[in-house]
Amino acid sequence: MGRALLSHFLVLSQSSTRFTPSPSLSAFGTKYTKPHSLFPLNRSSTGNSSRCCCGISLTEPAAAPERPPSSIKQRIVSGVQPTGSIHLGNYLGAIKNWISLQDTYDTLFFIVDLHAITLPYDTQQLHKATRDTAAIYLACGVDTSKASVFVQSHVRAHVELMWLLSSATPIGWLNRMIQFKEKSRKAGDENVGVALLTYPVLMASDILLYQSDFVPVGEDQKQHLELTRELAERVNYLYGGRKWKKLGGRGGVIFKVPEPLIPPAGARVMSLTDGLSKMSKSAPSDQSRINLLDPKDVIANKIKRCKTDSFPGLEFDNPERPECNNLLTIYQLVSGKGKEDVKQECENMNWGSFKILLTDALVDHLHPIQVRYNEIISDPAFLDEVLADGARKASSIADVTVNNLYQAMGFFRR
């Protein structure tokens, strides 16, 4: 989820891509047993307060978790911001993986439009981009008979819960967020809104609102999920258990503490102009990314001009060849081939031959998505109904969570 939740995930059914949770979940938080605990975020012994200790591996995923002996599906939530064009990194790192998840899990996929206003934005563009993003979700294969698709701002409980969580969030936790430091430094203090500082609390609200079991995360979002887990533990300690029961509630924990999930490949699709930078909507050059709706000639031109190197042959995992590794990974993911198959196919190729191969694979993979997108976006009534139905389903879950927290926090409810 830029700040896409999660971008983006777990254990999938037999023939599907496998995703796995972190083997070291205890690194995210502590069990709060001391009444005067300061509830700090975990830090390394060196004092680096922004270090994430989540223990997630991209190359050696942990063993699959055992599913509980219940017919109730575990829940996953994720979303993408409606800012800029949805690009290959959003798709391969998040959206493409949702298709398998929806068969195994209770899934909610939403357009995180409230996150899109933390920096200056075009109001007309926000409206259009929100609908476009929803249409792309469906065009990529999200099935509304299996997953709920909705717009974040259409479920008011997101903002409501954010305010309640804000009262329990130490300001020091937010000041340590790396993205806030980076973006505020670029924008300048006078131009930075409060929302840029507090959006991790909204992100926590997005996750905790639906009692999520798993959250798909990319490398750049691990710190935010760490904060979410810490905040869930903090609220459970402050207001849950017997304290909640004395107020007439069911007692116990108020929030599930979600576990992180990350795909073993494709979690970070890199820029076409810099193999060390993540493909991003905010990059100034459109040449740095492949947008899902780019026509064939644009894709061909971007691949033709993308950054390469002068080494002979092609290979994965050479730290001196980040662009080579990135382009091979993209080809592997869009072609559906295994890493070894791609290695054998491409190891003796020159860049000219490989770029033609990659372009054809990208065009073939994206063409049916683009056709389906055009069909969906030309039927606004259908799209409106999908989003309205998704918001109704999401609200039925979210309202229970918010009402429980109001009760646990001692509010007089009508």
From TrEMBL:
The keyword Aminoacyl-tRNA synthetase applies. It is an enzyme of class 6 (ligase). It catalyses: tRNA(Trp) + L-tryptophan + ATP = L-tryptophyl-tRNA(Trp) + AMP + diphosphate + H(+). GO terms for cellular component: chloroplast; mitochondrion. It is found in: Mitochondrion. Keywords: Aminoacyl-tRNA synthetase, ATP-binding, Ligase, Nucleotide-binding, Protein biosynthesis. GO terms for molecular function: ATP binding; tryptophan-tRNA ligase activity. It holds the Pfam family tRNA-synt_1b. Its main location: mitochondrion. The keyword Methyltransferase does not apply. Its EC number is 6.1.1.2. HAMAP family: Trp_tRNA_synth_B (MF_00140_B). Belongs to the class-I aminoacyl-tRNA synthetase family. PANTHER family: TRYPTOPHAN--TRNA LIGASE, MITOCHONDRIAL. This is tryptophan--tRNA ligase. It comes from Cucumis melo.
